[in-house]
Amino acid sequence: MSIIEIFLNPEVIWFIIGLALLISEFILPGVVIIFFGIGAWVTTIFILIFGISLNYQLVVFISTSLLSLALLRKFIKTLIYNRKGSDLESILEEFIGKTAVVQSEIKLGSQGKIEFKGSNWEAVSDQEIKKGEVVKIISKDSIVMKVERIKIKKPEEK
Questions:
Q1: Where are the CATH 2.40.50.140 domain residues in the chain?
Q2: Distance, CA of 158 to CA of 153 (rounded, Å)
Q3: Are 96 and 139 contacting, i.e. CB atoms less than 8 angstroms apart?
Q4: Quick one: 109 exposed, middle or buried, by C-beta within 10 A (0-12, 13-18, 19+)?
Q5: What pTM did the predictor assign?
């Protein structure tokens, strides 16, 4: 069996898809993609045990992904962030008042992107802010940060 034939097996394809989804969870915030990676790996196991067809593979993937998302997301978020889900104040404490760098311009009425703690986040503002400017996070709604430009004091001229 050649290497190409190995990679064309459905169980290998589902395993690679699951691995890619799990890795992408580290890049994108939100604790959602991980469950689709889990669904892909469960599908891999079903293929190995039962040898199911493509239609059943898709049913297993979608159902296990959504089921794990519905049942485990809150628990996994608690594990990852090491906080109680109801402790909103301490979660917001991690963001509010901190500074970030604008990665894509934030215009009035539309979202831009900021980089905070090595991750990119969607951001909105009541003012236009250009790429590269430093901003302060003033609130957080899900994965969207509300930011404002930091007012830099100019040193007095002599």
A1: 89-149
A2: 15
A3: yes
A4: exposed
A5: 0.53
Taking the C-alpha atoms of residue 12 and residue 15, their distance in angstroms, rounded to an integer, is 5
Please identify which residue in the block is written with the tokens 């996070």.
137
CATH number, span 89-149: 2.40.50.140
Token pair listed for 47:
């293929």
Q: 3-7, 59-63, 129-133 — which is least confidently predicted?
A: 3-7
In the DSSP assignment, the letter for residue 129 is B
Half-sphere exposure of residue 56, counting CA atoms within 13 Å on the CB side? 8
Please tell me whether residue 136 adopts helix, strand or coil conformation. strand
44 to 9, 14, 21, 38, 142: CA distances (angstroms)? 10, 6, 14, 10, 32
What is the spatial distance between Cα 121 and Cα 141, in angstroms, rounded to a whole number?
A: 11
